[in-house]
Fold:
Amino acid sequence: MMQQAVKVTDTIYWIGGNDRETDLFEGLWTLPKGVAYNAYFINDEKSALIDTIKSDKLSAYVERLVSIMPEGHGIDYLIVNHMEPDHSGSISILRKFYPEMKIVGNKKTIEMIKAFYGISDGMVEVKEGDVLDLGHHRLTFATIPMVHWPESMVTYDTTEKVLFSTDAFGGFCALEGGIFDDELDMSLYEDETLRYFANIVGRYSAPTQKAIAKVRTLDLKIICPSHGPILRSDPWHIVDLYDKWSSHRTEEGIVVVYGSMYGNTKFMTDTIARAAAEAGIKDVIIHDASRSNLSYIVRDIWKYRGLVLGSCTYNTELYPPVAALCRALKNKMMKNRVLGICGSYSWSKGALAELQVFAEQGGDWQLVTPTVEVKSSPTEEDLILCRELGTNMAKAIRESGK
Ligand code: FEO
Structure:
């Protein structure tokens, strides 16, 4: 018995696969709950595949495909919405099995297929708004550049009002039995969806806003993303979440991240966190930069308006895990945030000065005073300043949220 395709509509099928074996997405982002690579088959007079799958998951894809392929039929079209190899990785082998299959993509996609897989024949180039008529289904295409790569596009089935949205509206987490939003407790997916957004798509928030503007013009019944559940009971919910995150609308709360060798910087940030809590901030999330995976820290920072960074000085510089976080946050181009900073040193300063540079150049941060710098271990006067910073952070977060 082989794995079976799952019906999305009478003629559209999910033929994706779950990956619970890969430890790191893109070789970087930990996957404790796995990830799904979704792909789809449209069974029509002309048949079409929407994307392929990561090459090591091809067996699930092929088994599901042949479970519903009409006997003796080939594949007429492979529509390539996105070229990252978690979706394009099986193009070469499918082309070998279906040599007559036309590969559909935009100009950039076609260039990338040649660069990645050396295939340049049998291509159908489509532009924004072009129509591909499969018989019953009429597909149109829209580009959504940089969500998540330059060639990214979506395919919209005007017949059944189904949007194949590629990385947009996707998330981490393998599909746990149910694959539709009404078969799952979607609240359990939200943290992993935000972690995916913040780390994979977040840098491209402005292009995401442009993509959402296009999606909002559609008459939409179902969203079929490339990762995460298929949205059929409330497709606009995920659009609203992506809209909120990509427009930098944040929640009242503080993420406190510290890099500490012997606990002195941690003492400072714990004091700041306590003062913020006493000032009424209920959501205070503390991360040890050495121990929390970067992707979780970035996710939480994306969610909340306030961030406190504390770092000891290490070889005259910022502590390496805090430096890595600052580099990642600068790359994300975050906006509308409130920042507090503190640092420590023992004989040569360094950490706080680098945090001050980050505050000025690392995004759109409102720096809250006082900044606190401690020699070796905090004195009672230093801790008074830390408490003042925590109180002022709470006030600034509330005021900027009005
Ligand atoms: Fe799921 Fe950008 O690939």
